[in-house]
Amino acid sequence: MRVIHYLNQFFGGIGAEEQAGVGIEFRDGAVGPGKLLEQLLGDEAQIVLTIVCGDNYGVENQHELIARVVARSREAGADLFVAGPCFDAGRYGMAAGALCVAVQSQLKIPAVTAMSEENPGVDLYREPLYIIDSGSSTLKMRDALSSMAKLGRKLVLQQPIGLPREEGYLPRGLLRDQLVANNAATRLVEMLIAKMNKQPYESEMSPTAFKPVPMPAAVKDLSKARVVLVTDGGLVPKGNPDRIEGTAATRWGAYSIQGRDNLRGEDYEVSHGGYDTRFVQEDPDRLVPLDAMRQLEKSGVIGKLHEEFLSTCGRSNPLSNTRRLGREIAEKIKQEGIDAVILTST
User: Fold this and answer.
1) 3-state class of 16 per DSSP?
2) DSSP string spanning 277-313?
3) Is the dihedral of CA 110, 144, 86, 18 positive or negative?
């Protein structure tokens, strides 16, 4: 079995976040965690090629990454493509998922990856891929690689694949026909009775769950409060310096409004699909109302407007990735000592 392994810059031994922009490297044989993966795959398997790429480079140059990896995988005559494990590294997961889908569809060979359920790559690629549940801790590296090796062998040998809880992969949201002893109505009643009696039961559906968010305390005195403008409508300076994607964004930006009483269309653009952006491009204050906020500031309704607005794109964003962006933005807001946020959207 000829295996190709994809790693990010950290597991490839190049470095951590400071090396996230490193380009694509092709190395013969197994590298880093790939050495353990090769052992777990068994004597009949060999990692013939390892691909290493920085997280930022992989996401920002995805078309190039896919084209080059697919070409080299074809040349190598690979039987299996393995990416990761990615744990909770979002950019790593998104690149790994895109590569697995491309290799699987273009070369017709199986691919497997591993991520934490919170990784945005899961929401993007759970349906077309088998994604092993790696958890978020790299301390589970051996467990994740062991599950990847086991599932990878089954895929290559075209053996039956069990349910997610049996094989260790994340649910794909697909319905599978299966013969069972009782019909749906009987199973539903049995689950209901078990739930009412506080007995263990297993639902056949996994609804999305949202933790309750406590209501924050009211601003005591708005006339003394520091306020910030935040938008998920994708307004960015001309040239989009942070390369915020127009869909499924992985980044956000903070942009100075110091000394400005309004936003001019010639200075900004919109990185956001799915809505008519012409009116925002003509007058960005329609999305980020700096003009109105300056009036409130001058009249004393608010104490101080923060001299940056924060922006990202909210279109078609996986829930797990949205939560990460929200946490990062909230952390900045706390660090800046801001009292209130005005969030605008499309």
Assistant:
1) coil
2) -HHHHH-GGGTS-HHHHHHHHHTTSSSEEEEEEEE-B
3) negative
**Separation CA 74–CA 107 (nearest Å):** 7
The pLDDT of residue 173: 76
* 3 state SS of 5: strand
Distances (CA, A) of 5 to 15, 99, 112, 185: 18, 11, 10, 46
| 4-26 burial code (b ≥16 CB/10 A, e <16) | bbbbbbbbbebeeeebbebebee
Q: Would residue 23 be called left, alpha or beta, if left means φ above 0 and alpha means ψ between -120 and 50 degrees? A: beta
Three-class SS of residue 18?
helix
Sequence-ordered list of residues with C-beta below 8 angstroms from that of 323, at least 6 positions apart, any chain: 118
Q: How far is CA 239 from the centre of its chain?
A: 24
Q: What is the mean pLDDT of each successive set of 10 residues along the chain, which is 346 residues long?
A: 93 88 93 94 93 92 94 94 92 93 95 91 88 92 95 94 90 77 90 93 73 87 97 96 91 96 96 91 97 97 97 84 85 94 94
The burial class, CB within 10 Å (0-12 / 13-18 / 19+), for 133 is: buried
Q: 90-107 and 319-335 helices cross at what angle (nearest 10)?
A: 160
Q: Say how many C-beta atoms besides its own lie within 10 A of residue 162's C-beta.
A: 12
In the prediction, which pLDDT does 207 show?
67
Please answer whether residues 338 and 306 qualify as being in contact, where contact means their C-beta atoms are separated by less than 8 angstroms: yes
42's CB contacts (< 8 A; 6+ apart) are: 149, 153
What single letter denotes the amino acid at residue 248? A
Cα 25 to chain centroid, rounded = 23
Backbone angles phi, psi at 126, to 5 degrees: -65, -30
Helix (H, G, I), strand (E, B) or coil at 227: strand
